[in-house]
UniProtKB/TrEMBL annotation:
All residue ranges annotated as the Regulator of MON1-CCZ1 complex N-terminal domain in the record: 31-146
PANTHER family linked: COLON CANCER-ASSOCIATED PROTEIN MIC1 (PTHR12897), REGULATOR OF MON1-CCZ1 COMPLEX (PTHR12897:SF4)
Ranges of biased composition (kind: Polar residues): 461-478, 494-522, 537-546
Name this polypeptide is given: Regulator of MON1-CCZ1 complex N-terminal domain-containing protein
One example of a Gene Ontology biological process annotation: regulation of autophagy
Start and end residues of each stretch annotated as Disordered: 426-478, 494-546
Superkingdom per UniProt: Eukaryota
Example of a GO cellular component annotation carried by this entry: late endosome membrane
Source species taxonomy: Eukaryota, Viridiplantae, Streptophyta, Embryophyta, Tracheophyta
Membrane spanning residue stretches: none
Length: 561
């Protein structure tokens, strides 16, 4: 990169921050992740140790709860954190009241079925769902009587399952190749059953039928949309599916360069880790474009003692510096943005290097659009955005280009102010309804800076947005110099440039966009179902927080001038 940024992230677009959370405690029986509560759990013989994973992974003493001795296959806290569920075996799940210490168990018939797992839910009809090879048990947990009450049993065959709390989506795999799927979404809005669908698998040369493993399927939520990524090991491709209420549509195919991959989602960016090659590729599917936004680059470890030299260090030297191995055998990627190094007892959090991404393209409008959709580092977004606009002016770029760059900033600010005003209007209306007509009404000039509240349901309007005011812009001569000397490693002519898209509404649009890139395979003949114009996307439980029109940072006209 000629004249690129001088930051350590200039050779990488993604990094993990050192030091990680250390959980290498003697005598623990493994590490488990409770994604509903964001707890890292480390059980011992008679206690459960757990850490609350916040925005950072700073080390600290764990909390602990006493438990009965016995084998532990998985651990999940209830959503109100008043109970703990512990899977003891493939035929028993134990539930323990944290306040009273009393417990109860749910067992299955050992001769005819096996418990695959369980999870807690905010569904109004049940509290916990147990997944068995013969179907689902929907249960209500009654802490007063310390009992479980069966609400409903759903009969279906399952070999393995996949569930994430972020999406509230449960996928049950069945069939000889485990390519037939039954899906349910259990959310606060109720239960949505998806139509059955089949994932695509290439045939091997020996006419063997490969079996799809649970490790090859990943559920991610970006921009409030739920996607499923399925690795086809024979075809060396990653098939991308999107979920609708009445259909599941294959939207494209991403190339892979490793027989082992992992998937993460950071700030609405999909990261595909090519584990054998030890590189990561970034995708932004905001405009349903499946071209990578960067060249494959290694993952960086920031914050080591040799911080000033780590940009030039190879991966093996970085590994020895922190005492582990990058993309080692013990690495377990936790959706959406965590990495658990079970061998060394470490937990890492993934980050985007926005400065390095901005320095990898000379397309000012596209990178400005990209930055306005980010919210992980608002101060950096504002600094980079202002530096890009300033540089286009100083370089005497065409007036149309400068105007387009300014329009992007102003449009983002306008959307942010509209959403802030909308939230304030709703709040004022609610307050007026609660107050007597003789009471004074608050000054209408007061505008709340809080984003609208989160609504959880099976269907929402993904056009919703929230505005966040960031702090004052900061001058950054290094950033300005770097952007003035941009040198792209890959063709960056199409880094999503519109903020008015809201997903696919029909199959023809999906096909035209998927085939626009030479790296994307035509999947029109592989679509399990066709999406109609009235079909609504399946929304995640966090859709309102990650909506497609979220204005992450607002730069006012005065600041830009």
């Amino acid at each position: 990169m000629q004249g690129g940024l001088s930051s350590p992230g200039a050779l990488s677009h993604a990094y993990v921050q050192h030091p990680p959370l250390r959980c290498d405690i003697p005598d623990i029986k493994g590490l488990f992740y409770d994604d509903a509560n964001r707890f890292l759990v480390a059980p011992t013989a008679d206690r459960i140790l757990y850490w609350k994973i916040a925005a950072s992974t700073q080390s600290g003493p764990p909390n602990s709860d006493p438990i009965n001795e016995g084998p532990i296959l998985s651990v999940r806290f209830s959503l109100d954190q008043k109970a703990i569920g512990i899977q003891r075996s493939s035929h028993e799940v134990e539930f323990r009241n944290r306040e009273t210490g009393e417990g109860c168990s749910k067992k299955c018939r050992a001769d005819s079925e096996t418990i695959l797992g369980f999870f807690w839910t905010d569904c109004p009809t049940c509290d916990v769902i147990i997944i068995k090879t013969s179907g689902l048990d929907l249960l209500v947990y009654e802490p007063q009587s310390n009992a479980l009450r069966l609400v409903e049993s759903k009969k279906c065959s399952a070999t393995w399952y996949l569930y994430t709390h972020e999406s509230r989506l449960l996928l049950l795999a069945s069939g000889m190749q485990c390519t037939l799927f039954t899906g349910y979404q259990f959310s606060a809005g109720g239960i949505v059953k998806l139509p059955k669908f089949e994932m695509v698998m290439s045939k091997s040369e020996a006419n063997n039928k490969p079996v799809l493993a649970a490790a090859d399927v990943h559920i991610v939520t970006v921009y409030g949309r739920i996607y499923c990524l399925q690795l086809d090991r024979v075809g060396m491709a990653l098939n991308l599916y999107r979920f609708y209420r009445d259909a599941v549509v294959q939207q494209g195919t991403l190339p892979v360069y490793s027989s082992r991959i992992a998937v993460s989602a950071v700030d609405n960016i999909i990261m595909i880790h090519q584990i054998d090659a030890k590189v990561v590729i970034l995708y932004d599917v905001f405009m349903d474009s499946y071209a990578p936004i960067s060249a494959p680059l290694p993952l960086l470890v920031r914050g080591l003692a040799s911080n000033s030299k780590q940009a030039a260090q190879p991966a093996d030297q970085q590994s020895s510096a922190y005492g582990g191995t990058l993309y080692g055998e013990g690495w377990n990627f936790l959706i959406p943005d965590l990495i658990c190094d079970a061998e060394n007892g470490l937990l890492w959090k993934l980050h985007l290097d926005l400065e390095a991404i901005a320095a990898s393209t000379s397309d000012a409008p596209s990178i400005l659009e990209f930055l306005q959709r980010r919210k992980s580092d608002l101060s950096m977004v504002k600094t980079l955005s202002l530096a890009i606009v300033r540089t286009t002016i100083l370089e005497r770029r065409p007036v149309t280009l400068v105007a387009k760059a300014m329009d992007i900033i102003l449009d983002s600010y306008s959307r942010s102010m509209k959403m802030v005003g909308g939230a304030a209007g709703v709040r004022r209306t609610s307050e007026q309804n609660q107050q007597s007509s003789f009471q004074p009404v608050e000054d209408s000039r007061v505008v709340s800076q809080e984003p609208p509240g989160t609504m959880i349901g099976p269907v929402i309007n993904t056009d919703s947005a929230s505005g966040v005011e960031s702090g004052q812009s900061q001058s950054n001569s290094g950033v300005e110099h770097g952007i003035a000397n941009l040198a792209a490693h890959v063709d960056r002519s199409s880094l999503n440039t519109s903020s008015d898209s809201d997903g696919i509404t029909n199959t023809s649009r999906a096909v035209s966009q998927a085939t626009s890139s030479s790296q994307i395979s035509d999947a029109t003949g592989k679509r399990p179902q066709v999406v109609g114009e009235d079909s609504q996307p399946l929304a995640s439980g966090t859709s309102m927080q990650h909506g497609t029109h979220v204005a992450s940072v607002a730069i006012s006209p005065i600041e830009m001038v």
